[in-house]
């Protein structure tokens, strides 16, 4: 059953978020594509039809989140769903990792996830329906060293682990209002976020995945789209791993 929805997509200037916005437009939905980088957003998605709105938004700032929701409601009259992909990466090795870098990553990835979910959730609560999807990462299960590999360091991994608790808490709070909250935890995906991987680390990735390759942005975006769909209506408070079967040993 396909119902047309008004969907906020963060991180829409790049990678998974861009693929997600494009997929939702293909499916006939109204899309508010959001990113902190307004120029990149305008270059990534062309508002050819009236169903796409581009909205600059820094999810780490409460006012920016509130303004974005208000602008979306002014344009489309409502927000049915939020798919929040925006995040920053950090591969700083633990011995070099200071409070400033740690807090920078948590501010965008954790506080930002909360603030945009809070702003959307308040609107959905008054409507008595809605769906929110946040982005974790399977690095939160295995950990990762960062440093010369270019993989996520302790700050990034901790930020993605925090999403699980955030999803559970928001799910507990919002379920009674008909608002579902879930997360997607991707494995390694071919986007600019892994552009800092060393050549060796990048080359080693497919062999770690039983399906024999790293993920594409579309393959992750599709799960986000599923989690706001009618077909996922009884999935709530979950973090869905999407990583081609890679184990975490
Ligand atoms: N690519 C991977 O291998 C991978 C693996 C696991 C999880 N993830 C997660 O998937 C999500 C999408 O990752 P991606 O690979 O598409 O990343 P990406 O770097 O390609 O895109 C991230 C986007 O977020 C935007 N952004 C950053 N800070 C922002 C802010 N404060 N406010 C609004 N927008 C902001 C950036 O401008 C960028 O357009 C992220 O949450 C990431 O942690 C990615």
Would you write up a description of this structure?
The chain has helices at 15-26, 38-44, 62-76, 99-127, 139-142, 154-174, 199-204, 217-227, and strands at residues 6-10, 30-35, 52-56, 81-84, 130-135, 179-186, 239-242. It is α/β, with parallel strands linked by helices and 249 residues long. The protein has a single domain, classed as Rossmann fold. Helix 1 (15-26) crosses helix 8 (217-227), helix 3 (62-76) packs parallel to helix 4 and helix 4 packs parallel to helix 6. The radius of gyration is 17 Å and the shape is globular. The protein starts with 5 loop residues before the first strand and ends in a 7-residue tail after the last strand. The mean pLDDT is 96. The protein binds nicotinamide-adenine-dinucleotide. The site of nicotinamide-adenine-dinucleotide (NAD) has 30 residues, from helix 1 and helix 4.
CATH fold label? Rossmann fold
Globally, the shape reads globular
Radius of gyration: 17 Å
Bound molecules: nicotinamide-adenine-dinucleotide
Helix content: 40-55%
Q: For the residues shown, what is the average pLDDT?
A: 96
Give the total of domains: 1
- The number of E-state strands comes to 7
Taken in chain order, the helices and strands follow as EHEHEHEHEHHEHHE
Quick one: CATH superfamily?
NAD(P)-binding Rossmann-like Domain
The percent range for strand residues is 15-25%
Unreliable spans are: none
Q: What's the CATH class label?
A: Alpha Beta
Report strand order across the widest sheet.
3-2-1-4-5-6-7
Secondary-structure arrangement, i.e. CATH architecture: 3-Layer(aba) Sandwich
Structural class per helix/strand content?
alpha/beta
